[in-house]
Structure formats: C-alpha cells, structure tokens
Amino acid sequence: MSKTAAVVGSKPQQTLSVLAGAAFLIGIVIGIGIFRTPSLVATFTGNETLFIAAWALGGVIMLAGALCYAELGSAHPNAGGEYHFLTRAYGPGIGVLFAWARCTVIQTGAITAVAFVYADYASNIVPLGPYGAAVHAVLAVVVLTGVNLIGTLESARAQITLTVLTVIALLAVIVAGFSTSGAAPAPAANGSALSFGMFGLAMVFVLLTYGGWNEAAYLSGELKDVRRNMVRTLLLGTAVVVALYLLANLAYLNVFGLQGLTKSSAVGADLMRIVAGDASAIVFSLIVCVCALSTLNATIFTGARGYYALGRDVPVVRKLGVWEERGHKPANALLLQCAISLVLLVFGSVTRDGFEAMVAYTAPVFWFFLLLVAISVFIFRSRGGELPYRMALYPLPPIVLAAAAAWMIYSSLTYAGTGAWVGVAVLIVGAPLLLVSRRNPASSEAAE
Q: 222: which residues sit within 8 A by CB, 6+ positions away?
C-alpha cells in the first residue's frame, strides 16, 4: 500500500446520493427471506387477515426504526453508524463491545448466511461438483469484496444495478401471482393457531425478513447533505420495501390460499412453476441469486465501515482505521471482514447447515444492541442540543423499536436453538476488550 494511496488522516467523503443510499437499503432488506419465510408465517398466523397483519406490523416496526435512525444519523453522521451512536451514548466500552460483536457475529454471520443461500441456488445453474456450493459462496464473497476494494463509487453503481434487478425480479413474482386464478377459500383456522404465542413466533420470521434496514446508519458518513438526505433515504427505502412485501404476500395468497401456502417450502419457486412450468426453476434460481448478490454487496459495503470506525478509536487495531483516498474506501477493513467471512464459510460448509446456523448465531446479539440503540434516542434527547431532524410521533418510534427488540431477544433465545447461545458466548468472549477501550485522539468525531 503506497503512502500516497492510503492516508490515516483521510476520512470518508460525501459522495452518495439519496438514490444510491436507498438502493443499498432496499438491496440489503429485500433478499432471500421473502422467498422462504411466508409459508412459515402462514403456518403460525392461522388466517389470511392475521397473515397480512403480521407483514403490515413488520412494516410499522421497520418504519419506527427508520425514524429513529434518521434522527440519529442526521444528528451524528459517521461511517461507524451504530458503533458511533453507542459510543457517544454509553461510552467507548459499549462501542468497542459492539464493534467486536459486529465483526465476529453480526455482520460476518449475515454475510456468510447470504453467501450460503446464493451458493445453493447458483449450484443449480452452474454445478461445480461435490464442493460446488462452497466454491460459489467463496467466489461471491471474494469477488464482491474486490468490487468494494476498487472504490465506493464503483460499489454504489453495482448496488444500484443489483437493486434494480432485485426489484424487477420481485415484481415479476408479484405480477405472476396476480395473473393467475385465485385459490379456493381457506377453511377456518382452529383456536390454537390464533394464540398470541403463535402470532409472536410468526413475527420472528417477519422481522427476520424485514431485517437489514438499520445498515443505512453506516451510510451517514458518506451521504451528500446528510442532515437532509438521511431521512429521505430511510423513508424512500422503507416505503419501497413495505409496498413490495405486502404485494408479494397478497400475490402468494392469491395463488395458494393460506392452507396451500403453509404446504410450500419454496413458495417463490412453486409460484413460478405454476405460472411458467418446470423450466421456471432455473428462472427462480436466477432471481434468488440476484437478490442474494444485491444483499451481499450491500452488507459487505456497510460492514467494513464498522471495522474502520473501530480502527479510528482503538489504538491496538489502528490499521483498520486507514481510509484510502484512491477509491474512497477502507481497504484494510474490507480485507479483514472478507477473511473472517471465509473462515465462517468453511465452518458452515463442514456443518452442512450453514444458513440456519448463521441466522441463529446472529439474532440475539443483533437485537440486544438494537435495543441499546433505541434507548440511546432518549439519552441523546435528554442531553439537549440542536437536532437537524426531529422524528414524527416521538416518543412512540423508539418505544416501538425497543419493544420489538426485546421481543426478538426473547424469541430468538427461546426458539432459535443452540446457535443463538453460541453467538451470545462469542459476545461474552469479547468482554475483555472493554479494558482497551481508551479513546484515540483521532476518534470517530474526527471522522465526521
């Protein structure tokens, strides 16, 4: 790395437009979940009204979170995102612990989970032998990391392209669903299916499918005119995601009905097969691959910004805080993130249940820190100061977000199995980092 290419004192540049920011947000959220989880949500809701209500409630929670993040991101713009918010609200100890969790559990686990899904479907299109899925997963992570290493503008252009393709793919499923004759009315659900506990379990899958909107926080240091555009980016992305999810699920109900939906383990593929025949299996594989690549690219992009912010604040990992002026990117952070993700890919390939293991591994740790972010809104408000953007309906949005986070912590620890507790154990292993959380003079404030 040349001295002219990497300057430790350099910082992120405000080069991203509202459209690019919204494209990253949409690309992260609309991934493989919408093609997998609707059948599970149908199983635990019991009737079509509750099924759609669950997806609408998920949209409300996403909107509440977006309003919170719009206020936090516009008031405290920084490439470190949640790491920066938590550090300012609770002190460097909690910030460093979050950075550890994000680097070892949250972000790398998410990257790995998406890579596994991409690999499964890519193997249907281009078989590469007994270890083909692992090869596809590794290639996807390495190639997209390479795109991000070329530069931020190149990554943003790739993200806009992938997001447009993702939205087109989902729209194709929606149109196909509404173009086919409706299913017969579903029989009335039994009483047990309508219980609060069953609805709560349905929401676990709904919120998993809506997950990822918070990643927009890591764009706040690179958005043009962030104090005005942060809220526009979040609200535009949220509106598109909620509209597409509601339409997609109405299309699923139109084709299958609720009872038929509960019997489909690959609802998108089954829908396309009904409309277009068996050849649509390849088409659907391409759809999922595009969605997974879109999510993967955006997750790699935002994930590296957390490593960068950690390097700015903690002297022992200061090399992660290098920002390369050529290409405007945190190259060292991208490389380390790629290396950890590849280790998790190898582990998941050996266990053969990679996607499920990574979902369980990340959930309780992710929602624990999201709960702290929700509470931080009240902390910042209590300190006073000027806010470029004040959320509507305060204090309702942070209350809704905090309640949802607490609900997800409980649900993931109760239902996700051993993997969830492994993630918690890794978080605890990072506790000694609290002892090295002395702030660096070139801290995250300097990166603003």
A: 12, 13, 14, 15, 16, 79, 152, 328
Count of Cβ atoms closer than 10 Å to residue 187 Cβ: 10
d(CA 5, CA 294): 28
Give the residue-averaged pLDDT of 187-205. Answer: 63
Burial of 366 (0-12, 13-18, 19+ CB in 10 A): buried
3-state secondary structure of 6: strand
> What are residue 7's DSSP bridge partners?
323
Q: Which of 25, 348, 325, 15 is nearest to 159 (CA)?
A: 25
Tokens of 267: 């609802």
Q: Output the DSSP codes for 352-420.
A: S-HHHHHHHHHHHHHHHHHHHHHHHHHHHHHH----S---TTTTHHHHHHHHHHHHHHHHHHHHS-HHH
Distance of alpha carbon 260 from alpha carbon 262, whole angstroms:
5
DSSP state of 323: E
- Distance in angstroms (rounded) separating the CA atoms of residues 402 and 326: 40
Q: How far apart are CA 390 and CA 72, in angstroms?
A: 9
> Tens digits of per-residue pLDDT, 327-349?
667 888 899 999 999 988 887 77
Q: What is the pLDDT of residues 72-131, one digit of tens each?
A: 888 887 767 788 899 899 988 898 899 889 888 988 888 988 888 888 778 878 888 777
Measured distance CA(362)–CA(357) in Å, rounded: 9
Rg, C-alpha atoms of the chain: 21
Helices (H) and strands (E) in the chain, counts: 16, 2
